[in-house]
Amino acid sequence: MLKLPKFKAAAVQAAPIFLDTEATVDLVCRLIQEAAEKGASLVAFPEVFVSGYPYWNWVMNPIQGSPWFEKLCKSAIEVPGPEINKIARAAARHHINVVIGVNERTPHGIATLYNTLVTISDEGNILGRHRKLVPTWAEKLTWANGDAASLKVHDTRIGPLGVLACGENTNTLARFSLLSQGELVHVASYISLPVAPPDYDMAEAIRLRASAHCFEGKVFTLVSCSTISPEIVKAMSASHPEAEALLARSNSAFTGIIGPDGRVMGDPLIDKEGIVYAQIDLNRCIQPRQMHDITGHYNRFDIFDLKVNRRPMKAIRFTDLPSDQEDLP
């Protein structure tokens, strides 16, 4: 008999301790404890929360922003590595699943970074490391393209869990690849971006994307978005006089939990910090699929054919390695 989980979920809206990896990891561990003590079995954190977003790409030219890129490289972490392992131990200690965004540095390089989402089980196991497939717009000055090696849905105690970072949630094929693997719980991690075009409502755009995924796929989505702290504004303003004005626009951060009907559950957070909670019942994903199950009977796979290359991208492949070791990280 099919038995689907019911659980409490939490989505964090907060600012990191800007480019201070150790302090931000400590903050993450405190927020994990807070969410667990409120009864949550899953907590979602923002995009690149460890430990900061390259806002200089939006308010400075590449030459002005270059020193900040070096700081970001030095604050980035490896996965696995001591920082993410500390977060994993907190997840195990508090028996809670965690999804968190990090700036990932490869063990074989010092200046190639990835926008990475790490999924951790409530036993403290690192289930996946998803690198953002395509950095958005000005982000291309900072992050390399990811690959689909970890574009996977993870089997957890709270159900099949998938993740995407920020603008990836507009990528129909990326979303479908998760839905087709049985995703029922989705985490969409974002950053606050006040420097978007003047007619662009970032908070509404985030909600709209998440609602679309929920309604199309009949799934639950946790949206977690960072905020811009006075510390971040001060740091950017020290290098560019217009930074404060550019980073001041409201309606730039949305955090909430959305049901399989596309509606927001409870009260979301707009711009301000906090944690949003909601009760999730995955049984609610069943009845709406009688109308359209786009990964099942409501599709034409004799017409449409999606292929996903999940082979890891590498700078080099050594021919003297046994074939079963070629794809090791």
UniProtKB/TrEMBL annotation:
InterPro entries: C-N_Hydrolase, C-N_Hydrolase_sf, Nitrilase/CN_hydratase_CS, Nitrilases_CHs. Residues 7-282 form the CN hydrolase domain. CDD domains: nitrilases_CHs. The active site is at E47 (proton acceptor). GO terms for molecular function: nitrilase activity. Pfam families: CN_hydrolase. SUPFAM superfamilies: Carbon-nitrogen hydrolase. Belongs to the carbon-nitrogen hydrolase superfamily. Nitrilase family. This is Aliphatic nitrilase. The lineage of its organism: Bacteria, Pseudomonadati, Pseudomonadota, Gammaproteobacteria, Enterobacterales.
